[in-house]
Amino acid sequence: MPQTIQIVFLVYAGVLGASVGSFMNVCVSRLPRGESLVRPRSRCPGCGGPIAWYDNIPLLSWVLLRGRCRQCRERISIQYPALELATAAIWVGMSLLYGPTWRALQGSILFSLLLTISLIDARHYLIPDALSLGGLGAGLALALLPGPPSILTALIGAALGFGVLLAVGVLGEWVFKKPAMGGGDIKMMAMVGAFLGPAGAMLTIFLGALAGTIVFAPLSLKTKKEVPFGVFLGLGAAIAFLFGEALVDWYSNTVFGTV
Fold it and tell me: Does the pLDDT value for residue 48 go beyond 80?
């Protein structure tokens, strides 16, 4: 790809990613409260005044307004530009890794969903169906496009991710006599399986459980707080998407001595 075209492509990816991040801000703010993503229009969290379109341009408006509402001068959380910037970085990063391919689009959408789900789960111990089931639909739709995974692989991955985590939840509840797995985590794994296929789903569960045990389990034992497992599943899914094939090959070579 000529350098000029590549630069234009990356700029376009960044702008699109920032726009997706702006929408994800709406999801983070409204979905935990059960509010519509469409109405009412964006409003200042301080004075409640509607935000004009020219004050709602991703990244740019926050910088020009110096992080304050035009009407009441109330500070606007840095979360808004931070999430927009992070999502723009995701879309640019995927474009650099995979170029103008469906794989880049797949990775951009998956990572945007994982980031949003992780933020909500970390704050509210909640994974909204709009993200998990909506992401499941997106993953299956993307599987119809050229490249991996195929639609059959995506369906098997979704079923396996859902089924394995459901089984873990049922077994855990039987052993500990209390709910051991949230329904949101189970539906999230169906989404992840649709994007990553069966091997990626299993690797995600393993990595998520490992990370959750190492990072959060000791703290949970002291504070008795629940583990926001969706955060660690998101981390595991991100690693599985980027390095899953290499990790599976390494494991096969190490354990089974395959070439």
Answer: no
